[in-house]
Amino acid sequence: MVFTTVAQFVRANINKIKGPDEFWRKRRIFRLTAHFIGRKRNCYSLAIRGAHRALQYATKGRHLKKKDMKDLWLQRVSAGSEEHGVPFPVLQKGLIRSDVLLSQKTLSELATWEPRTFKALTQLAWTKGVEDGFNRIETLGEPPKNVVTRGMLTKEVYLSDDETKK
Amino acid sequence: MALTLVRICTRSLIKPIRSSIVCNPKIFPERSCVKKLHGTKASLFPSTSGQSFTPVKQEVLTDDLSKEEKRFADETIALVNEQIKENKEGRLFAVIHVAGKQFKVTSEDIIVIHGHWDPKPGNEIEFEKVLAVGAKDFSLIGRPVLPLGLVTVKGTVVEKDLSHTKTHFILVRRKQHRRINFIRSEHTMVRINEIKIKGEVGAIENEEGVRRIEH
Amino acid sequence: MRNIFERVKQWNTLTRIWHLYDAKWQDPFDSAKVIQKYLKGLHKPIYHPLADCGDHVVVINCKEIAMRGDEWRKRAYFHHTGYAGGGTYTLAWELHDKNPLMIMKKAVYRSMKGNLQRRYTMERLHLYAEENVPQDIIENISSVIPQLRDVPMRLDRMPEDQVKGYPKIWDLPKDYVVR
């Protein structure tokens, strides 16, 4: 808020005992409700309720937005994988098991903007599903033949040479 | 040629890929880093009591495959390498892992990193956790990250700023409880300068070339 | 937009596609779940609830839908005229006799959440009782949604020679009267 004189600024802010001056106290709320429709905009007793409610929604909404985005990514990734004949659970499980730890957000971006990379990922997951014997994986039909895993998606590898000696 | 569509090959697993998840001997003296690679989360930090920590050694796996498949895989990798050598791979994109989040970037992008992050404006950064790289005809996918030195993703911190003011308002009706706080979180803008494939795809690194994340 | 091919690629992404769905011997309520996905555009990786990226679906053979168990006799559709005592319950088979499209339409309508978008989404659904679809709609169709169940061949519609050629364990006695 713009204060043209020092006296106005003091009235609005510094009077600790009484609180800010009534006009400026209300003015603050009306600033928040300026874009509302109806009496909530200009009648103070309704405006303050509306302002409180709006601020509460804004606080909650920041968390809800994150949840909504997660749901949207899930929807997009499953749509993308079903285009290539792989249900989402198979894609998810197959990628995690073959240690491809791309996040849901990244996968949804790949599905939209890099469809060929995404198709490769679905085929990889499918092959992993066949190698590990996922439930009812055979119902998906003929698995892709262009994936050469060289047995390395399932092979057990020991990181320590001491372990292998024992 | 559509390599991505046609051929997918896994290359011999080299240890450095794993090294980022190796536990630190100072913190977990009893745990060694031995176990299955894939599988449950527990295998990342297996607790085999009584064993001392042993450093990770690189191990090259042998291919026990039919000749035809081996030829197919080698051919594919050779094609990829050839393209990289001739600079015909086109504009690259990379998936990098920064500050707990993944970003799909290409050169000249600006990414915004939310929250506190140390680098200062003007700092040049090389992103080492590269999860995937894609080109016109092929994509390289890390398990979970690509080996160090294969791909370089470089960026510059352009700006540090605060977000818009977020109002954190709590009101409990009829209980005389009202709190209002104003929050501005940090934003860091990073310009991605270049993405390049430096190494050779499928090449075996030098044996001692193991780098671990030190605390 | 570099060249003419990339322009076509974008058209392919953003235009509405017309799908064909054959409802013959299909459960209308299970089918509705599939159809609404296409109507809303949930099958596309570019989906966004505000993006209006849904497709058209043409459903044929609505007259020959199938219902489980006793559904035709037990399922009732409620309608109220708004006047006192104006409520009526119509059984599924009665409604189907009156209008063979109604059950399918209501199934799809109910499978979607009630919001402002629902009625606009429904406008992209085209229902036909039989296989004869107007030419201007057939021209648009470029994709087929696979049926949920295979349609079995009915014995009375099988070709005569195929029935006769079917291997038998024993023959009926010559004086046996088939009712």
UniProtKB/TrEMBL annotation, chain A:
The keyword Ribosomal protein applies. SUPFAM superfamilies: Ribosomal protein L20 (SSF74731). Keywords: Ribonucleoprotein, Ribosomal protein. GO terms for molecular function: rRNA binding; structural constituent of ribosome. It comes from the Eukaryota. One of its GO terms (cellular component) is ribosome. One of its GO terms (biological process) is translation. PANTHER family: 39S RIBOSOMAL PROTEIN L20. Belongs to the bacterial ribosomal protein bL20 family. This is 39S ribosomal protein L20, mitochondrial. It comes from Laodelphax striatellus. The lineage of its organism: Eukaryota, Metazoa, Ecdysozoa, Arthropoda, Hexapoda.
Automatic annotation (TrEMBL), chain B:
SUPFAM superfamilies: L21p-like. PANTHER family: 50S RIBOSOMAL PROTEIN L21, LARGE RIBOSOMAL SUBUNIT PROTEIN BL21M. One of its GO terms (cellular component) is mitochondrial large ribosomal subunit. One of its GO terms (molecular function) is RNA binding. This is Large ribosomal subunit protein bL21m. It comes from Laodelphax striatellus (Small brown planthopper). Keywords: Ribonucleoprotein, Ribosomal protein. GO terms for biological process: translation. It comes from the Eukaryota. Belongs to the bacterial ribosomal protein bL21 family.
Automatic annotation (TrEMBL), chain C:
Pfam families: Ribosomal_L13. Keywords: Ribonucleoprotein, Ribosomal protein. One of its GO terms (molecular function) is structural constituent of ribosome. It comes from the Eukaryota. GO terms for biological process: negative regulation of translation; translation. GO terms for cellular component: mitochondrial large ribosomal subunit. InterPro entries: Ribosomal_uL13 (IPR005822), Ribosomal_uL13_bac-type (IPR005823), Ribosomal_uL13_sf (IPR036899). Belongs to the universal ribosomal protein uL13 family. This is 39S ribosomal protein L13, mitochondrial. It comes from Laodelphax striatellus (Small brown planthopper).
